[in-house]
Design goal:
The chain has 1 helix and 11 strands; from the N terminus they run ββββββαβββββ. The protein has 225 residues and is mainly beta.
């Protein structure tokens, strides 16, 4: 999980904060301090002993991967940072030790000084989920980050992050990164926020797709939107 040092700048792999941000509309107040997981009771249609929990949430800046020898122009290089949202979660007690599918619904807000916040939501379904620890990630592309943050560097205090985990369409766990919100900001619509749902990308839509293949669960392609 993104650390508690909210005074340092975001490194390439891990974010630190630049200080307090003037919160637009007062709707997402509070610095990132902790995560708040919740677990729903078992639902019909799956094993009554199924347990799903969010163990860790991370917000990182990661450099575009560079594949040596794979460029067509010697002026090309990897110089930009992506916003990576990563979740570590645990499943246990599935029938025969496997779930056919699990759905993660990602919600992220990026705060902008004196401007309307940007909110993105994305549902991604993963398949063949064994009882163990799992990792998943979504991304925001570099140019959009630069456009939203302007001349200043993005900080942890600029990001709000909430994830829901569903099995058979029923929420079985969820977690916040940051202070527990007073309102469901991920449900807000324009003009209260600027919605950019299509700009939250799964791994298959990024240059990170071929990396660490066995570390992440397989995305169900026809349900990646």
């Amino acid at each position: 999980m993104a650390g508690a040092d909210d005074t340092a700048r975001l490194p390439r792999r891990r974010m630190g904060a630049l200080g307090c941000l003037v919160l637009v509309c007062g709707m997402l107040a509070g610095p990132v301090q902790a995560q708040y997981p919740r677990m729903a009771p078992p639902q019909a249609g799956r094993s009554d002993s199924l347990r799903v929990s969010v163990r860790k949430m991370d917000v990182n800046l990661v450099r575009t991967p560079y594949y040596r020898g794979a460029t067509s122009d010697n002026r090309a290089n990897a110089k930009d940072d992506w916003l990576q949202l990563q979740v570590e979660y645990q499943t246990d007690g599935a029938r025969e030790g496997w779930l056919d599918e699990i759905e993660l619904v990602w919600h992220v807000a990026i705060l902008r000084k004196n401007q309307t916040p940007v909110v993105m939501s994305r549902s991604v379904t993963y398949v063949d989920i064994e009882d163990e620890t799992h990792y998943a990630a979504t991304y925001v592309r570099p140019k959009l980050l630069q456009r939203l943050s302007g001349t200043r560097r993005l900080s942890r205090n600029d990001v709000r992050f909430y994830v829901e985990i569903k099995v058979d369409g029923k929420r079985v766990a969820d977690s916040y990164l940051g202070q527990r919100p007073q309102a469901a900001w991920w449900e807000y619509q324009p003009p209260r926020v600027d919605r950019r749902d299509s700009d939250l990308l799964n791994r298959l839509e990024t240059p990170f797709a071929p990396l660490d293949y066995d570390f992440y669960e397989q995305i169900k392609r026809d349900a990646s939107r």
